[in-house]
Amino acid sequence: MYKYHFSFIFLSLFVSLLSLGGCQTSSKETGAVDENLIRVLNWEDYIYEADSDCVDDGYPQNDLMDQFVEYIYEKTGREITYIYDTFDTNETMFNELQTGKMAYDIIIPSDYMLQRMISLDMLEPFDEDFMMPNVDKFMSPYLKDIFESIKATSSVTNETYSLDQFSLPYMWGTVGITYNPNFQGYIANGLSEEEIHEDFRSWDVMYDNRYQDSLFIKDSMRDVYAVSIIHVYKDEIARLEEELLPSNPDEFNARLTSIFNRCDDETLKLVLEDMLALKDNSFGFEVDSGKNDVVTGKVAGVLAWSGDAVYSMDEAESEDLGEDAKELYFTIPKEGSNIWFDGLAMPKSNSLNKELAQEFINFLFDPAIAEQNMYYVGYTPSVAGPNILDYVYDCYDLRGEVGGVDADDYVEYDITYFFEGTIDNLDDAILHVDETQLSRQLKAQYPSKDDLPHLAIMNDFGEQNNAVIDLWEIVRNNPLPTWAIVVLAVEVGIAGVSIGFFVYKKVKKNKLFKKHRALRKAAE
Questions:
Q1: Which pLDDT does position 253 carry in this prediction?
Q2: Are 93 and 107 in contact (CB under 8 A)?
């Protein structure tokens, strides 16, 4: 099933058992509207939850959902309650909603699933006259423009809608590679650190036999497809870049996005061949362990979501590792990559509490609330504004250090594109950072301006979805070689240990920025 990474099989079994509780059954079935109840269905570990570490760092003692209850009481005098359930995959969430047995007021699917749900007439549009001042004032204009550009056509009304009519972005990020340039295998092969950094600027590194068996790829159809589609058409993309950049970056991005979303039969044949080559050169597939395996040195790198990359880089430089601490890096390869969103939306039902749902969305767009989520979750909210910029400044800007820094000791990193219109002085969004941040945590949180034309939305595959699923099954289900069966048998014996470790990691809260901030504060 997998070429090298087999403990995943046993962990997946355990995860499946856990996920039975992922979408809890506490939500009432579709019925009359309860005006004093809000029901939220979210990803696991994707909202601020208070604990002693949070309080010690100056954050509220109440979970964010409890803060919303207090907010509504202070604003209206109403005493509300909430139901908060979680899911593990977009498909799990989608299937639960399609049964019609469960009803929620707020769900947070990924961009492609939002498109699918709009096409099936499963989402409720926002009320045009409902005021959401925080959204109007603090939503990043960069993300607002992208959300308006994503379209979906309803199979019921035959009308085409923009995503922002039904959803607003909660968190966003990119897909790239987290890697260790000082991996012992690379040093043994005579590769210099400079050469490794340069190689990881291209997706070609995932296919290069000098890096064979050292990189994980995700057990995720869409993420691996994103790598392959760019690799298949890299020559065409290079020609477009030469022709259109820097004179017309918007046109380049439009053409790149068109290539990125090819899924016709001929393209699928090319992508299948490319995916098999990618798999053959990789260490194997991983689900969630890769962000830790690159820290422990099991692998040199992993195909990663940007938030997981921040987690890995923070963990790798933790003082708890002592002499084993290391400096990891994150790259968005130069050919281009995926930009993704998880969006807040309201599923249609007879019991939809639309007023409270829209109030909750506006609440999440308060920069002070968004900062709590950013601190706790580690991914980047779509909210801009002074609170968020101050938080980023505290994490990364060298001017916060005692005595400041000389001009020769920093580089400028421009994230004005994200904060434009939400802060008084836009120059404040030009940070003074250590040069390594051009390819470390800050890069993962906020891509550089040069990256933006190379970031493309991957739409739902639509009518070709089943064909892409079939392609993915071919890639994943190649027969195991004999030696792999031996490894599999050995790992049966240690499955219990692996499961125990997995449970520990699930219980541990992912304060992705906490250690990074602590290191910065220690230097002051």
A1: 97
A2: yes
Tally Cβ neighbours within 10 Å of residue 477.
10
Q: Token pair 């290069």 is at which residue?
A: 208
CA distance 291 to 301: 9
Which pair of tokens denotes residue 50? 């208070």
- The length of the chain is 524
Give the chain's mean pLDDT: 87
pTM of the model: 0.86
- In terms of C-beta distances under 8 Å and separation of at least 24 residues, what long-range contacts does 270-276 make, across chains too? 270/232, 271/225, 271/228, 271/229, 271/232, 271/471, 272/471, 272/474, 272/475, 274/228, 274/231, 274/232, 275/224, 275/225, 275/228, 275/471, 275/472, 275/475, 276/475, 276/478
**Cβ neighbours of residue 366 under 8 Å, at least 6 residues apart?**
134, 138, 383
Tokens of 468: 């892409």
Do 320 and 28 touch, CB atoms closer than 8 A? no
- What does residue 488 show for φ and ψ, rounded to 5 degrees? -60, -45
Tokens of 89: 């995959």
pLDDT tens figures, 262-287:
999 999 999 999 999 999 999 999 98
| Beta partners for residue 168, in sequence order | 344
Angle at 514 between CA 446 and CA 397, to 5 degrees: 50
User: Buried b vs exposed e over 157-181: b needs ≥16 C-beta within 10 Å?
Assistant: eeeebebbebbbbbbbbbbbbbbbb
CA distance 241 to 335: 9
Q: What span, in angstroms and rounded, lies between the C-alpha atoms of 260 and 243?
A: 18
Task: Locate the DSSP E strands across 108-190.
Answer: 123-124, 151-153, 160-162, 167-179
Model confidence at 29, in pLDDT bands (50, 70, 90)?
low
| Tally of CA atoms within 13 A in the half-sphere of 456 that contains its CB | 30
pLDDT at position 324 is 83
Q: What is the pLDDT of residues 349-367, one digit of tens each?
A: 999 999 999 999 999 999 9
Q: Residue 360 has what pLDDT?
A: 98
- Rounded to the nearest angstrom, the gap between the alpha carbon of residue 228 and the centroid of all alpha carbons in its chain is 19
